[in-house]
Amino acid sequence: MKRRSLLVSIGLFCLSLLLIVSCTTGPQTSPDATSSSPKVSLGFSAWPGWFPWQITADKGIFVDNKVKVDLKWFDGYLESINALNAKQLDANSQTLGDTVSSLAGGADLVIVLVNDHSTGNDKIIVREGINSIQDLKGKKVAAEEGTVDHFLLLQGLKKAGMKPDDIEFVPLETGQAATAFVGGQVDAVGVFPPFTTQALKRSGSKTLFTSKDFPGSISDHLVVTRDMVEQRPEQVQALVNSWFATLDFMAKNPDVSTEIMAKRAGVTIPEYQEYADGTKIFTLTENIAAFQPGDTMNNLPFAAEQFSDFLMSVGLIQEKPDLSKLFDDQFVKAAAAKAQPS
């Protein structure tokens, strides 16, 4: 499983035009709704903040909100990004950093919802004997190149006054990186659930730092094509309404919800429950606040500028994209107005 790559190059964007979405595991489709509009193709992949979409489909919440949805599961997160860039999806679950990268590569996308912030589930895990970030100097550190865990690693190095070439970076797919770490082939690894569980099985291993140490640095979103916003805004609204209805269902039915999400994640219920504190699901009120201008990483316009600068500084994008039309909060505001008592 590849999760949340920050590197979406123009080359990958072009290649994605040839991507055949059917190569992923079979799509999961909600029952037909009453709407006569075409189905919405919505992608998601392995991350605790996106597993609720499985509840939305399984419990008929899309149908309740009168939208027909093909919910497509991607084993490879990067494949979902490529599919959205190629307009083989109408919407996708992806990070802010990836979306900025996609804009730089020529995609025309809109963020309409904040699913969550990573508050500890992204981890840099190290072997016995490494007790500080400075101890990583000259060590082999594995992560999937361009993913947010690579980004987290670079953020940690920067905070410690180190440069990327102070370590021996080993680019490996996330699952392979965890395996290499457990096998003693590398000294440290950047991973996310469920691979954090695997990595920590190495004797003497421990977490060095996590996304909790960099608040707001990893945010996850519902991202749609601009065509969706301009041509089918009622369906975008239905997706947003369905998300918040799902959060209501989860609050009222925690056991059933956890069972569905654990099954989709391929882990046991106790293992899934360990991930709960590492992801902060955003409420409606928190969504509205996130879209406002400000000077913290909790303010999306500010965070996008910071990501753009960072991606430029490490050479992951060649020029800063136009961020002026990236965010559209009309849908979360409409959802909030609908939720107000009459």
How would you sum up this structure, described in words?
- InterPro entries: ABC_SsuA_sub-bd (IPR010067), SsuA/THI5 (IPR015168).
- Residues 56-255 form the SsuA/THI5-like domain.
- It is found in: Periplasm.
- The protein is of the alpha/beta class and 342 residues long.
- 40% of the residues lie in helices and 17% in strands.
- It has helices at residues 10-16, 52-58, 61-64, 77-85, 96-104, 148-159, 174-182, 195-199, 226-231, 233-252, 254-265, 269-273, 284-290, 300-313, 330-339, and strands spanning 28-29, 40-44, 69-73, 91-95, 109-118, 123-126, 140-143, 168-171, 188-191, 206-210, 219-225, 279-281.
- It has a seven-stranded mixed β-sheet, with helices on both faces. It has a five-stranded mixed β-sheet with strand order 8-7-9-6-10, with helices on both faces.
- Residues 6-35 have low confidence and may be disordered.
Question: Would you kindly provide a brief summary of this structure?
Answer:
It is found in: Periplasm. The chain is an alpha/beta fold and 342 residues long. It contains 15 helices and 12 strands.
